[in-house]
Amino acid sequence: LRVTMVALLGALTLAAAATAATFEGEHSGANYKIVMPDAWNGTLVVLAHGYRDKADHAGEVDNRSAMDASFTAIANGLAAQGYAVAATSYRDNGWAVKESIHDITALRARFNGLVGKPDTALLMGFSLGSLATAKLAEQRSGLFDGYLPACGVLAGSPRAWDMGAVGLLAYKLIFGL
Fold it and tell me: pLDDT per residue over 22-77, tens digit each?
């Protein structure tokens, strides 16, 4: 789904105008990036990234970017349409659902402090970020006006593993292991 969204927004990226401002920094222990369009339509879109492997072996380095190449393409496409876009790295990598909820909430407050309160705020989460999106939709009414949990494991782990097992069984029956 993420690749599909990038492809759909790719055309918008080609027509993207220069942004009026880009804010980057660290807030509450997490890196953030905010992309503001020249003519802001009053809507903020917050992007919540998926699982990032924790650098827990020699020579590994944690990915601490607020926006990877896919999110940058999405942000540029949306900014070309007048949307402000913000993202955070989360304060930790790995299974960081609790951290993502805190850091998305902190990013929303940071945006209000730097830019002002948007007319509309939307949260779009991918994979692990969809878990934070769903949790914030259930518990923090008013923080965002709309929520899109994409590529989420929202049916729970047992059902996700059951689906994987069915796929593995079908593969085994058709192709062998």
Answer: 999 999 899 999 999 999 999 999 999 999 999 888 998 888 999 999 999 999 99
Task: Identify any residues that bridge with 121 across adjacent strands, giving them in sequence order.
Answer: 44
3-state secondary structure of 64: coil
The CB-based long-range contact list for 53-60 (8 Å cut-off, 24+ gap) reads 53/93, 53/94, 54/92, 54/93, 54/94, 55/93, 56/94
Query: For residue 69, which of 43, 102, 33 has the smallest C-alpha distance?
Result: 33
Contact between 80 and 17 under an 8 Å Cβ cutoff? The reply is yes
Both structure tokens of 97: 């659902």
All residues at 6 or more sequence positions from 74 whose CB lies less than 8 Å from its CB, including other chains: 5, 6, 9, 47, 85
- Phi, psi at 127, each rounded to 5°: 55, -120
User: pTM for the whole thing?
Assistant: 0.80
Contact 134, 141 (CB under 8 A): no
Please report which helix (H) or strand (E) contains residue 156, including its range: none
**Order of strands, edge to edge, in the sheet holding 120-126?**
21-27, 30-36, 84-88, 43-48, 120-126, 146-150
